[in-house]
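[job 4471] stage=fold_predict status=RUNNING
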Amino acid sequence: MPHIDYAAGLLWYIVFLYSTVCHEAAHAWVALKLGDDTAYQGGQVTLDPIPHIRREPWGMVLVPLITFYMNALNGVTWMMGWASAPYDREWAERKPRSAAWMAIAGPVANLLLVIVAAICIRIGLAAGWFTPGSTRFAEIVRPVTEGGAAHFFTMLLGVVFSLNVLLMTFNLIPLPPFDGASVPLLFLRGAAAASWQQLMWNPAAQLMGFVVAFKGFGAVFYPIHTFALNLLYFGRATAG
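[job 4471] inference complete, writing structure tokens
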């Protein structure tokens, strides 16, 4: 039976939890600022994970832990899950551009977490504490001095960077039900915006979007992840 690294699993879960909370809190905060207090009334304009877990216990707790364990049995450190922030559909119909900004806010929150992790990594490189790693999720940066705390910290930065690149990319897929499907609402007006929203909210379109996204996501994500690493390391990302 493969060895299961529960410490790595805990680290992954903490990063997943707070990255997802930041994403959903950004949706909720921007919606509040633009006139929809639905998520605020649900207690989701917060970085406290409890209201978000209460809304999506399966996606925020059970599925991540189950998928971590199942993947660990195959020697892979990985988990998946989901969360959501409620909004008023009538508000979105009245203010489609505001709804689009609300949707975009989630991936922007993930981008900010990527930038924070990148700054920490660059500081560590400049100080001589870190060295570039591989393109693997948790190994994009390595400590110069081996040790439990140093290894934990570089793994933490690697997971924050890579997981948030993934969350940002996945949510910007321009298909319903993902956040990226709302981007056209920044440019559409009147009947065109209303028609696009009806397509976004159509269950069949959402199901098709999920299928297409899961089938083709690897082909989209890995080049973007490598591009992000090349930005981080000024074109010197290491394969492997």
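[job 4471] summary: The first helix runs from residue 6 to 33.
[job 4471] exit 0
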